[in-house]
Automatic annotation (TrEMBL):
Keyword Transmembrane: no
Annotated keywords: Repeat
Gene3D superfamilies reported in the protein's UniProt record: Tetratricopeptide repeat domain (1.25.40.10)
Protein name as catalogued: Pentacotripeptide-repeat region of PRORP domain-containing protein
Domain of life per record: Eukaryota
Amino acid sequence: TRDSADAADKAQQIVDRMMRLHEMEPAYFAEPCIIVLNALLKAYSRSSNPRAGLQAEELLKWMDQTSREAGKEHVKPDYSSFAAVLHAWANHASNGGAQRAQEILEHVEELLLSSSPEEGEYPGSSGDGNNSVHRGALVNYYYIVIKAWGRSKDPNAIQRTEALLERMEQSRHIQPDTRTYSSAINCCAYYNGSTSKGRHLALSFAMKTFEKACQSENDPPNYVTYGTIMKAIGRLEDGGVEERDVLLKPIFEKCKEQGLVERFVLTQFRTGCSLEAFQECVLIPAGFGPING
């Protein structure tokens, strides 16, 4: 199956067989194209093998080199190719994968900045000048890397995430979207430091990020954003349940106004708030009486 431990190895074997058959009988057997190679990269991106990130990156390098030096446009990496490699590293973030994913992202940006303003092409673009698609690709790359830092357990993960968001906000090409903001807040929620000061800084960044997401007119917060900031408050606020209620209740009310209360939101709100706050905001408005105890 696609999620089995050896799925990527089996996919690699199929591609290797296609290559051998093409070399023997090129008139009868097709060489793997970008669709096949991207499927292999996706298999690596889902693999539990700790070498999956490296294997995906090596394949990407081969695709890029072959397309440029041999003129084989049918294996030229596209948006999905880069995204799959970043996912492969992000899925092993705690073993140096987050750092490597960021290095690849920075390489992608260098390629972007080296292109002329007239071209405006992003790595993996089709060259059709559709900059909105290419900008969306780069935003997604940032999202993947921020997600990687959130999984990394690195003591500086929040600082790295904050720096990535600032780069996006200062860019002429892209801006953070809801997924990016939600992922940054989630990184804060999983802060694993032991100091009260560290948790306070993590919560402060989470709240600041949530406020920025709320200010976005084109891509406002969704239920994941609301649920994730509630999770961050529940995990990081050290002052006790009363202080958590002060932060959680207005956020939940705003979520209700937007019609975005889903199971995830209710779960995070109930986990972080007091029983009294849950009754006041959820049970009583829904027609249920107060619960004692």
